[in-house]
């Protein structure tokens, strides 16, 4: 590759420019923003040779016989040419080994290129990985890639305080479990009072079947032939029992949550249900959608326990959901369970920041 003579940015000092005569750099350097002369620079007068001093190896004295002479660095007048055919750059401006590629200040144009100036090289200034004045492979920005993230970047969950919907603290999981157990106990008590007779009649209808199954199990018989069949009345009683159970649960939970966000169990534990985005009370529609994921699976209890499995997964989800600890019925109704305002506590300071080695994920 033939490089035409001309003025180009000095790779060793990007703030200056020098004249390239096709074989090496000649003449004194000029500021990079100065207007160079149209041709090569005037020849420099040779500097007077320094006075010889005693002792071999002194500055300015010829090399001692037998000692290797230090070759001029690449890019200096009389130095070796670059192995890849371009001008000898003399190594990158930040030190380190020479690289095969154009210098940070721009490569001289090749033969046939327009003489409008050397093309820019490397990413523009300010790009990731660019050094000062657009130098390629410059030092990374402060903190990259393993330092603290810039302001506004997402912070790790364990370094930020927990969310506070509407300024209220999220309800502790233990309080939510106890509140749910209290509510289940009250609904079960209502079923004993209202649904007890239907449950007793259902047991009477299926007693012959269960008695025979129990007898064969004790005798070690595994056959199911000859088992008595449950009457059609048993199937009807089963449907009635489930309907009454769901209706009692609906009457207990939906109106109270719609009006105050609290059932009796939640009021005892000092927690309540609030909308995720709005500030007013839930209302009947949102409370009903929330109840659907809780109450409707009751009708699937007789289908190999599928309904109970759905309810179990629903109630266990807050232990794994982050950061709002929502159950499936919370996600269905767009709600979140928080401490009531009277039981709310001030926000705790985070145990550590993403950049603090003493902090860590919550236990």
UniProtKB/TrEMBL annotation:
Q: Which UniProt keywords apply?
A: Cell membrane, Membrane, Transmembrane, Transmembrane helix
Q: Does the keyword Membrane apply?
A: yes
| Bias (Low complexity) | 52-67, 340-354
Q: Where is this region: Disordered?
A: 1-148, 338-363
InterPro entries in alphabetical order: Pra-immunoreactive, RDD
| Record keyword Cell membrane present | yes
- Its principal location? membrane
Q: Note the coiled coil stretches, chain numbering.
A: none
Q: Where is the composition biased (Pro residues)?
A: 34-51, 68-77, 85-126, 137-148
| Top-level taxon of the source organism | Bacteria
Per UniProt, subcellular location reads as:
Cell membrane
What Pfam families does this protein map onto?
Answer: RDD (PF06271)
Q: Quote the protein name from its UniProt record.
A: RDD domain-containing protein
Q: Which organism is it from?
A: Plantactinospora mayteni
